[in-house]
Amino acid sequence: MKIRSVLAVFFMSVIFSIYVLASGAEELKPVQLLSPQIGGGKPLMQALKERETRREFSSKELPLQVLSDLLWAACGINRPDSGLRTAPTAKNMQEIDVYVAKSDGLYLYDAKSNMLMPILSGDIRALAGKQPFVKDAPVNLIYVADLAKMGGPSVDADFYSATDTGFVSENVYLFCASAGLATVVRGFVDRPVLAKAMKLRSDQKVILAQTVGYPK
C-alpha cells in the first residue's frame, strides 16, 4: 500500500507538471509593439562609421520601445498608404518573415499590425545558432523566406531570398549602430533542426539568423 501511495503521488506530480507546461504554452500572447520613434538616433553617416559586428552580449532584455524600433527598422512599413517597407524585396514580394526568439518564446513580426504574433512558448534561442552566446542573448532574429510568395523553390527564389535577407540584416546593423546595441548576423545554424522546432512548412526556408542585444 505504501508503494502504491508513493507511485500515486509521483504520477500526480507528473500530471501536474504536464498541466503547468501546457498552461504556460497558452500564456504566450500577442505583443502590441509601440510606434517607432523615427526622430531619434544618430545621423546616417555616423551610424555607417560605427557599424560593426560584435559577438559578446549582455543578457539584459531590450525595452519594448527599443524592440519596436528595431523591428520597424528591419522591415517595417514606412509608407502606410502602399504598405511598402524599410527594406526592399525583389518585385516587392515581401517574402522575408522575421521571427523573434526571446526567452519566453518565439514570435513572428507582423509589420501590418505592428505586433509580435506568438508562435511557440518556451525558449528555443539555443537552436538559433551554434555559437555559445546565442542562447543567452536577449533577441535572436530568424529570417525565413516564404517561397510560396515567390512561386515556389527555384534558383531565382534562392538568389532573391538571400539578397533580400541581406537588406533586412543591414538595416538591423545600422539601427544597432545608431542605438548603441551589439549585433552579428550568422549563417552557422542547423537549419533543419531549427525549421522543425519552428514548425515551418516545406516551402519556408531559414536563410540567416541575427543576434541583437546590449554590448557586454
Name the descriptors.
36% helix; globular; 5 helices; NADH Oxidase; two-stranded antiparallel ribbon; 216 residues; alpha+beta
Task: Tell me what you see in this structure.
- The chain has one domain: 3-Layer(aba) Sandwich (NADH Oxidase), CATH 3.40.109.10.
- 36% of the residues lie in helices and 23% in strands.
- The chain is built from five helices and nine strands.
- The chain has helices at residues 2-26, 44-50, 64-75, 155-179, 191-198; strands spanning 31-32, 77-79, 84-85, 96-102, 105-110, 115-121, 139-146, 182-186, 204-213.
- The protein has a seven-stranded antiparallel β-sheet with strand order 1-6-5-4-7-9-8, sandwiched between helices. A two-stranded antiparallel sheet has the order 2-3.
- A hairpin with a 2-residue loop joins strand 4 and strand 5 (105-110).
Task: Chart the SSEs and their pairings.
Blueprint: H1 2-26, E1 31-32, H2 44-50, H3 64-75, E2 77-79, E3 84-85, E4 96-102, E5 105-110, E6 115-121, E7 139-146, H4 155-179, E8 182-186, H5 191-198, E9 204-213
Q: Report the end-to-end length measured between terminal Cα atoms.
A: 56 Å
The major beta sheet can be summarized as:
7 strands, antiparallel
Shape: globular
- Spatial order of the strands in the main sheet? 1-6-5-4-7-9-8
* Fraction of helical residues: 25-40%
Return the CATH class. Answer: Alpha Beta
SSE sequence, one letter per element: HEHHEEEEEEHEHE
Number of domains: 1
Output the radius of gyration. Answer: 20 Å
Q: Any idea of the CATH topology?
A: NADH Oxidase
